[in-house]
Amino acid sequence: MLFNKSEVKASLKSDARYVSILRDPTSLLYSAYTYFRWRERFNYSSFEDFVIRTKSTKQIDPLIISFKNLMMFDFGLHPKNYEDDAIVDSKIAEIESTFDLIMIRDGEYFKQSLILLKNLMHWTVVDVAVVAINKMMSSAPKPVFSKSLTHHLLEANQADYKLYRKFLTIFKEKVKKFGAEKMKKELEELNYTTNKLANFCIAGTKPGSRNTTVYILSKAGEDNCYCRCVMVTYIP
Predict the structure, then answer these.
(1) What pLDDT, on a 0 to 100 scale, did the predictor assign at position 228?
(2) Which of 10, 65, 108, 206 is deepest in the core (most CB within 10 A)?
(3) What torsion do the CA atoms of 33, 34, 37, 40 make, to the nearest 10 degrees?
(4) CA–CA separation, 151 and 145 (whole Å)
């Protein structure tokens, strides 16, 4: 769903909380490139070839628009405005004024995001204990981001990088305000609960399609609705 503030607001109660999540644009784009098999579908020779060729096109096409500024597109920014700084800044300001929390997907920020989400929503740690599915296998080939590739990525996805940098700064401020000791304590509780959940549901792992890891459910996990629903991969 592309975010439309007025449409969403009309569908929710006045006290609704608005939460979204961002990911480093480079990591996100490479993940989409591999997940949707754009190399095979559109005959790109490499990820760098994909970035360079899609960067240069100005065509507004349903297949092309998803190749650039993925996050800003999801927030409702029209592709024709990707390079208009004033419109991009206005959209970012709208997001800041609308959303109560923008979570960050990357590294340690993700678990900190879960803690902030738990406290915002007045949930328990069980509500935010999650195990990653469709996770890339550690043995999967990793891209090499040369200076040239990095330059092309930044140039083609300026709106997404501006969005990400803005909300990463805001996120760090929220974490600092939350308190280091309190965050440490709640992360320990989250890790304990997550490990307990994984040990109950999962017996092992096996390679899946597209270089992903698939969980093998334990006997208890097979008989448990939560384990079956949450930990089964959806990649065909």
Answers:
(1) 86
(2) 65
(3) 90
(4) 10
Output the pLDDT for position 125.
97
74 falls in which pLDDT band (50, 70, 90)? Answer: very high
Tokens of 9: 């607001």
- H or E element: which one contains 105? none
Question: How far separated are the first and last CA of the chain, in Å rounded?
Answer: 22
Q: Is pLDDT at 222 greater than 80 in this prediction?
A: yes
Amino acid code (one letter) for 3: F
206: Cα within 13 Å, side-chain hemisphere: 7
Give me the count of residues in the chain. 236
What phi and psi values does residue 179 have, to the nearest 5 degrees? 105, 130
pLDDT per residue over 4-44, tens digit each?
999 999 999 999 999 999 999 998 988 888 888 888 888 88
3-class state of residue 181 by DSSP = helix
Q: What is the DSSP letter of 14?
A: T
Indicate the SS3 state at residue 139: coil
For every residue of 110-136, DSSP letters joined together read HHHHHHHHHHHHT--GGGG-----SPB
Only one residue has tokens 């100005």, namely 58
- Per-residue confidence (pLDDT) for residue 132, from 0 to 100: 82
Task: Tell me the Cα Rg of the chain.
Answer: 20
| Token output for 82 | 């990707």
- Per the CB < 8 A criterion, the answer to whether 194 and 188 are in contact is no
